[in-house]
Amino acid sequence: MKASRVAVMLSLVQGLLLVPCGKGEIVLSRLPWTGRTFSVAVAGNHAYLGAPGHLVVIDISAPTRPVPVAKAAVPAAVENLCVRNTLVFAAVGKAGLLVFKSKNGALKELAHYEAGHHVWGVTLGNRHAYLAAHDSGVRIIDIANPTAPREVGWLDTPGLALAASVSGKYLYVADGLGLRIVTLSRGTRPKEVAFVPTPGPALKVAVARGYAFVATYDFGVRIIDVSSPESPKEAGFFDTPGLALSVAVRGRFLYVADGPSGLRIIDVADPRTPKEVGFLQTPGFAEDVALSENLALVADTEDLRLIDITDPTNPRELSAFDPRREIDTQAFAAPVEWPTTAIGSCCPSHQLATR
C-alpha cells in the first residue's frame, strides 16, 4: 500500500493518528479512543446495534420502549453494519466480515469471511459486498450465496479505506486522505476515476441527491458535488462544533454524529451554504447515526439513543437503550416478523428514505 503523503494508523490506546511519512513525523490529528465502539443500522421496526462483543437486535416499534429481541456474540468490535432483507452484514475489524440471518427472534450466523485485513466498513451492491479494508483498499465480495462469500476483486487505494457507499455504478470511498470515486461498470475490476482531497481525515461518506457528504473529524462535513462522478468538486462545507464521525441524509437535512457535541442537524437544501437548524447533546460520545421514518438513532459511548426528528429544528430524545445492562439482564422477546428493507449509512442512496 502506497501512502506517500500521509499514513493513517489505529492504536487501541491512542485512537486514529495522521502522521506525515518520512523524516520529522508529527501527529496531525488524534481521535480519542473510549474503549467502547458502537455502530447502528435500521431496518423497518428494528435497530441493529454493534456493541462491544455483541450484535444486538432491538425492536423500536414503540420508540419510547425499545426492546431487545436477539443477540449474538462477535469476535471483535463491530465497526459497521449493513442490513438487507433478513441478512445482516457486520464489519468486525480484524475478524473480517460476519453474515447473519435474522428471523424468528434469533440471529443465526451464516458465514464468517476472514478477509485477512482490518475491515472498517461494508456497503452493498446488487450481488456484491464492498469492504473498506484499511491499508488493503476495497475488497469485492460475491454474496450471491450468503453462506459462502468469496472475494472476486479488489482495488488498492493510496490512503486507508475506512468507509464506502454505493450509488448507481459508482463506489464512494472515505479513504483517510479524501474521497475516492470508483467506477463499478467493469464488474469485479473496479477503477478509480476521481479523487477529492479533504483537509481532515475522511471517515464516513453518505451519497444523496448528487452530493457526497464526507465526515472529516475536526474539519466538519465536506459537501462534494458528484452529479458528474468523474468530475467532482467541493460545493460547500459545514464546520461542526465537535468531531464529525458519521453522517446520514434524508431529504434536505444532514444528520451528523459529532462526537462530544452529540447529534447536529444541518439544512443542506443549498449545499453551498449549509446551516445548522437543530441539535441534541448526547451524554456520551456520538459515534454513529442511522435514520428510520421520523427517528434518528444515535450510537454513543453510553447508549443507543432514539431521537424524534419529526421537527428537525427541535429533536427530542424518546428513550435510550443501554446494551451493558440490557444484554446481560433482560429476557429477549418472543419471535417477530422481520422487515424487508434497510436504512443506514451502508445502504445505496436509492434506499435512503426521503421526506
Automatic annotation (TrEMBL):
<protein>
    <recommendedName>
        <fullName>YncE family protein</fullName>
    </recommendedName>
</protein>
<dbReference type="InterPro" id="IPR013211">
    <property type="entry name" value="LVIVD"/>
</dbReference>
<dbReference type="InterPro" id="IPR011044">
    <property type="entry name" value="Quino_amine_DH_bsu"/>
</dbReference>
<dbReference type="InterPro" id="IPR015943">
    <property type="entry name" value="WD40/YVTN_repeat-like_dom_sf"/>
</dbReference>
<dbReference type="Pfam" id="PF08309">
    <property type="entry name" value="LVIVD"/>
</dbReference>
